[in-house]
Structure formats: structure tokens, C-alpha cells
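Q: What would this complex look like in 3D?
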Amino acid sequence: MTLEITTARHDPALLDLPWSVPLEDWPESTLAALPRGISRHVVRFVRLGTRVIAIKEIKADLADREYAMLRNLRKLEIPSVEPFGVVHGRTDADGNPLDACLITRHLQFSLPYRALYSQSLRPDTAVRLMDALALLLVRLHLEGFWWGDVSLSNTLFRRDAGAFAAYLVDAETGELHSRLSNGQREHDLDIAQVNIAGELMDLDAGGFLEDQADPFEVAASIIERYHTLWDAVTGSERFEAGDRWRVEERIRKLNELGFDVDELSMSTDIGGTEIVITPKVVDAGHHSRRLLRLTGLDVGENQARRLLNDLDAYAAATDRQNDEEAIVAHDWLSNIYEPVTRAVPRELRSRLEPAEIFHEVLEHRWYMSERAGHDIPIFDALADYVATVLPAKPEEQAVLGVDTAEMPVISRID
Amino acid sequence: MATVTFDNATRQYPGNPKPSVDKLNIEIADGEFLVLVGPSGCGKSTSLRMLAGLEEVNGGRILIGDRDVTNLSPKDRDVAMVFQNYALYPHMSVADNMGFALKIAGVDKAEIRKRVEEAAKILDLTPYLDRKPKALSGGQRQRVAMGRAIVRSPQVFLMDEPLSNLDAKLRVQTRTQIASLQRRLGVTTVYVTHDQVEAMTMGDRVAVLKDGILQQCDSPRRMYDHPANVFVAGFIGSPAMNLMDVPVTDGGVDLHGHTVPVAREDLTNAGKHVTLGVRPEDLELSSDTSGIPVTVDVVEELGADAYIYGTAEQKLLEATGENAGDVPFIARVDGRRPPEKGEKIYLKPKPGHVHVFNAESGLRIGD
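A: Here is my prediction, written as C-alpha cells for the whole assembly.
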């Protein structure tokens, strides 16, 4: 057999990796981090030039399937890890065949849930993680994706203006349908509840769960959060024909939740006295798309919301509310956002993403202003933040480690 | 525990011209191990998911026991999908790993412990209940995962290609384990596979599907000996049954001068030719040049036996005047005196070991 590497982006350095060695036995010198925990499959993080890639050893057909699935999810703009390639035709030194490898790019500034729980946490972290996961699940289900293995282990979290954004990491069990049945959605929720309860109980048993939250309550909350969001996004609304403002109101509410409405169905009853509206096609990322259009900045949804608010404040403070929005946005970018994020010393830039730092500086300014009893200029707040707050933060650009604490149950028998 | 009934159950996806599962009728007995098998796209997984509540049922109904579950949500059906990527948690004891999900269902502590202990006894895990999964062997870990499904004591176990991730050797071991465990538990089980060998070795009964339509549901033995149609005849058995078109003559069918007797009444409506099926092991070498002429391409020697892979000439079909052409042919012969590659041999079916099918409908003729 010949080694066959299929990648979206060609990087000859891939050829230098020790493909003829079972992934489990790769020398430490090739690894970007030492493996932690036990995963269902062998997974390793490897430094490739300036980037870090994750390599998972699985059967060839499963590797191809998951690679194609991750590519589909990216096309659908679902937050997920970026597939990098598949390696086939591996053999060991004696010519025995080895399993294929699926390669994904490491998601910068992402945090496995275990890393979050090993830091000292704000008490509502568990709640914010559930919010992020519920949103991810709603987005997946809107696209017709049945996950089949919803869990904290199969998700990565990125800070998003004080909240979290969830990214799908493992699509091995997933299936893409044109539409999901209620049974399929409920089944995913069932799986989520059991897996999350198990994962949090395991953290508890390992002494990592300082948070006093009850694993079962936290796990159950995903269901409620999911349903609230799902109903808000897809539910029908009925009102009197005279109350047409409620159409605008519904769209505004969905925008606030971060969704754009691409298609809305409206129907009247026979007498024409009542109107029923149902959002048909909705797209997450309302704020991040708007910010991207105005400034070219590609950031998380909540970060975008925060930045847009600051942009509005900037327009008001400079008395330019009636100017072309894109021009004001450009000035805000070059006068405020870029100077602030560029002023962060190089050695501290791997602590947090630029947009998250900007968000934190805004928070910091708010607290400073409150203490001082008057407005503090943003560059003063920035100086104080960089001097007192940021250096105490952990490095989060590349938190690695096989994070699933799962064990193989079916892949090996003695 | 309960029976399961598919009653004209139909699933048609929006936009598809044909149903993916078309009026499926199967009655599964209490405690039975039923295997749904068929080629990719035959509707076997869809059928299982209809039973699980994951696919909407567009027509007909599904019953568990006497209860119509057609419109119930998955968790109200009292079924358990086994082997859904069960993870074991390293810091929790084996007992907690098996029982924690019951807590979500609101089962009290004493009852959880009782069920876990019962399951551990069946799975030979009793001495390990208070240990961590790390201390277990791979096989024991797998049994813990099975335990997670068992403690739920569902009415029905559902398994969708649970062995597809395993290599060939592990698949054989695990399939034996699953089958023997199911027999000890006596829980009604529906199992989906594309592998007919898996289906034949595990199931009390096997249901073969093709294009959404049930072809036959029978015990493995009956399925092998009495395939209901040409599709089942070709799908069940490895190597596959030989199938060829042959002319009908007085008192039977004609194989190049060798008459295979078939009851006259069975052939009344069959037309001028029929499809004849013979399993590779049901053939013997002819002493003369009557019988099916086969040119040997490959001889696979297995010691006691040898398999011959060759090409058979089909007889000119007098009815239509067209030559039906050559077909691939497989025969098992005595391993001590196998023919040689390139040789032309003549084969006859052993008396009573032929299957006759209507050439038009493909349905079995006679018993």
C-alpha cells in the first residue's frame, strides 16, 4: 500500500510525520502537548510549522465520512473544527496495515470543558456552557444535522464577550438530513442530558467540580434552554390582523437572539381576522455578520454585539449618527478598536483573543468609571487593564490535551 | 418484556417518489432476537428508527406489546438503543458507570443498586463493581457499557450495526457475546446489519429487506433452505447460490440434456423457462457430458473441500430463440481430486437440492 494524504491545504511537512508508527507510540518530540486522559480513539496534537493539528486514528471509512461531514458543516457555517485532511494507506515497518488518520486544525483560543473547570470559575460557568451548547444544538438541528453524541467532551468553547461560544469537535456519529423529526431532536437531547450528567459526575468524583452545581440539574437544564430557544426561533405566532407591528417585533426579537430571518411565512385564517407567522429560514450570526460587513472583523456573536454597541456609542459621542454607517465604522476601527488591540504587548497577546481583550477593556473601563464617579477614557482603562489584569490571565491561545475522559468500550476486547 | 408489531408501517421521505419502508408487517415474539438485514438503502435502519421513534411513521402503526407507540416520543417507548457510543468515566466506580443514568430517570438509590447488582451478576462483573474502569480489561469495559443498557430494563433492545467499527476478528467474538447475553436476558431485541453472515448466526429469525419491501422473514435455516424469491436466494449464503435461466421440459427442467425433476403442477403457470438455483455445496461432478458445462477459472483449495469458480454456459432458450449467455458459477467439490484451472467440467445438482423460481416474478415455485 502507498501512503495517500488528502488535504484541503497542502503542507509538505505532513510527509515528515511518522505515519508508519501507531499514533499511540508517536515520539514525544513530534507532539505539541502530552496526551491527557483516555479517549475512545487515539488522538494526538502535533505542531506543524506554525500551526497545531489534531490527529485521530480511526478506520478509513469512518475517517472519510467524518472528514466529508466536517466539510459540509463548515459550508453550512456551523461552528465546528476545521477539517484538514485524511491519511490513508499507512503501514508499519513490517508492512502491516495501520488505521487511517483524520486531521483537523486546532481551534485557537478554544477551551475544553475540563480546562475551564480546572480554573477557578465564576459560579455561573456551568450555566453559560449550557447556553452555548444549547445554541449550537439549535443551529445544528436547524440545518438538519443529528449529532448522535452530544457531550461536553465533543465540544470546544471559546470566550465570547463574557459568555461562551460552542464549537462541534466530533462529527463521527452525525447524520445530515433535509429536516429532523421531533424524535431525532429529542433523542439528541436525551443523549446530551445523559452524557453531560456523566461528565460532570466524573469531574465531581475526580475532585474537579468546585462549583456547587448539581450535575443532574445542570444536565437537565440543557433541555429547557434548548426548547426555549427552539420555540423562539421556529415557533408560530398568531395575532389579530390589525397588529401588524408584531411581524416587525418578531424579527427584532430574533435579531436580538442573534438570528437573521431569511424567510417568514405569513398566513391568514378564512375570515382574514387573524394572521399566523412562522419563521421558515433563520440564520444564526446576525451581529457577527453585520460587524463583518461594516469592519471586516470576524469575531464571536456576543463580541460582535459588544463591539457594535461601542460603535454606536462612538457615533453618538462624535455626533455622527446621521453619517453613513460604514464610514463611521471605518473611523471607529482605525481610531478605537485597532489602537486598543494593538497596544497590548506582544507577550500578552496569547492570553486572550483581541476581540475578547477589547470586551474586557470595556468592562474594565465601566468598573473604573463607576469607582471614579466619571467617565474614564478608553486608553486610560487599557493601560490599567494591561498593567493589572491581563498579566494574571492564563495563556489560552493553545490549550491542548486530549480532553475526552472516555475509555474505549467497544473498540477492543481481550 | 414485550412483543413488537410492525403493522403496515410505512415511511416516505418528503420529495422521494417511493417509500423508504413500504407497508412493513412483522410480528416479533416476546424475547425473540430478530435481525433486519439487506443491502444499503433497503430500509432496515429506517425500520429500526421508526420503532425507536426517530423517524416519523407516515402510514400503518407500530406496537410494543399491546401499546400503539406510533406517535410516542422516543423516551416514552421503553426501548433502549444499545452501544450508542457509550463512554466510561474514569473517576467513577464501575457501579456508578452502570447506574448513573437511572438517576436521571428518577429511580431511587436502593433500586439503582439492586438493578446494578443484578446486571453485574449476569455480566460477571460483581467483583469489580467498586473498582474504577481503568482496572478492567477491554472485554470487561465493554460489558460495563452493555450494563448501562441492561439496568434500564427496557422492553426492547435496539442495535443498529453495533459491530461496524470492529475488525473482522473482534466482530466474530462480540457477536457471540451479544447473542449469548440476549439469550440469558430474554429481552426482545431488534438488530440491524448489512452482513448476512451476522444475521444468520445471531438471529432467531431474519427479515430480509430490499427497496423498502420485506422479502422474507424466517428462521435462518428456513431462509437458507427455502428462499422465497430470487433476491433472497442470492443474498443469503456465502458463497452465493448459483442462479441461471433454464428451459422447462416434460417432467422438469432441462440442464443440457440432464432433466431435473420438478412437479408438473408447480410448472403449470411458469411459462417456457424458469430460474434455477443451486447452492455450491449441492452440486456433484457428472460422469459424462450431461449437466451444466462449466469452464474452471479459479480453484480455491480449503483442504477437505475445494471451491471452483468458473463460467457456466446457459442453454439456448428455445422459447425465445435467444442465448441467455454465460453466467459465473461456483461449486464445492472434493478437495482431494479437484479439477484444474481451464478444464471443462459437467455438474449436476444433487437430487432434491434445487430451487426453482418464476423467471418473470422471481417468486419461488413449489416447496
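A: To summarize the key features: The two ends of chain B are 35 Å apart (CA to CA). Chain B touches chain A through 41 residues (CB under 8 Å).
Q: Very helpful, thank you.
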